[in-house]
Design goal:
Blueprint: H1 3-15, E1 27-31, E2 34-41, H2 50-75, E3 82-83, H3 85-92, H4 101-107, E4 110-114, E5 122-128, E6 137-143
Antiparallel strand pairs: 1-2, 2-6, 3-4, 4-5, 5-6
Helix pairs in contact: 3-4
Length: about 150
Amino acid sequence: MDSAKYLDAIDSLCARDLTAADSEPDAYRSGPGYRIESLVVSHGMRDGDAAPRMAAVEDFYALRSRIAQQLDDRWGRQQPLWGMGTLKLRLDRGEDIPEPWLTTSIVTDDLDLWQPPGSPRWIALGVGHRDGTDEIHVLAVASDIDPV
C-alpha cells in the first residue's frame, strides 16, 4: 500500500472547498463544512466470518498508524488519540453531535486528529469497521467544524 497516494488525498482534503456537500464517488459522506473520504476500502468483508474480518481490521489499523506517523512528522503530534466513547455517551443522552463527528463516532472507535499549522481546518484519520454490514474503511476526515 503506497502511503504517498494517501498523503496526496489528505493534502487535497486540506485544500478542498468544503462550503457545500458534493456527490463525488470517493466521498464516504460530505456536507457543508466537512468531507469524509475512504482512503482504502476492504472487499468482501461485509457480513463475513468474524476472524478474517478482525484480521483485516488489524491491517487497516496498521495502515492508519503508518499514515498518522507521517502526518505527525509533517505537522507534529497535536492531539492525543481521540476515543469516541464520550461522543457516543452524549449521543445516547440526546445531545446533537454535528457532522462529521456524529458519523465518525458511530463507525470508528477512535480518531487521530490534527489541525495543520496555519489552518482552521481539522484533519482526522480513523478505521470505520463498527458496522458489520459495511466494508472496512480507512477514513480521512476534513472539517471546518471544531471537534466537539
